[in-house]
Amino acid sequence: MESRAKALGHPIHPMLITVPLGLLATAVVFDVLHLITDRKGFAISAGYMIAAGIVGGLVAAIPGLVDWLAIPPGTRAKRVGALHGIGNVVVILLFALSWLARTGSNWDPGVLAIVLGFAGLAVAGFTGWLGGELVDRLGVGVDEDANLNAPSSLGGGRGAASTGRTVLGEH
Predict the structure, then answer these.
(1) pLDDT at residue 22 tops 50
(2) CA within 13 Å, CB half, 80
(3) Residue 108 half-sphere exposure, CB side, CA atoms within 13 Å?
(4) 48-91, pLDDT tens digit by residue?
(5) Cα separation of 37 and 130, whole Å?
(6) Mean of the pLDDT values across residues 86-113?
(7) How far from 4 is each of 16, 36, 134, CA to CA, in Å?
(8) ∠122-31-123 over CA atoms, to 5°?
(9) Phi and psi at residue 11, in whole multiples of 5°?
(10) E strands, the chain, where?
């Protein structure tokens, strides 16, 4: 099934998600750099990156939800999409809690804030893999004749890209 939320013929959700994911991942890197160098600028920057990443993630969720609502019920794609979306809500919540843990400490990330950031990044890695599974394996958002019940890529079965159908404009 093709994406229902498009801009100039391309799905919007994958375009938007790169910004918040990059911001949140960089915030974790800046937390590590703050721990190593004890430079306050890294801690402050991480706080701002988390705030911007949360806003960007919420914006990116809108076209993602539009696309998920268009997936036929009872398909593997619908289940994977639900897990992807719920997982990303968890990512936003973990980073929001990390951000809140910093605000009372003059932006200095304590152990809790850093652990929440690492947990958020780990969950984001998993939900990113699920997003790849939706697009690359199941063809969601890129192929009107997508195989919405293709097996997991971890099982080695045939997915949307290996069924001989046109995917991503290939002929």
Answers:
(1) yes
(2) 24
(3) 8
(4) 999 999 999 999 999 999 999 999 999 999 999 999 999 999 99
(5) 35
(6) 94
(7) 15, 45, 15
(8) 10
(9) -60, 135
(10) 6-7, 10-11
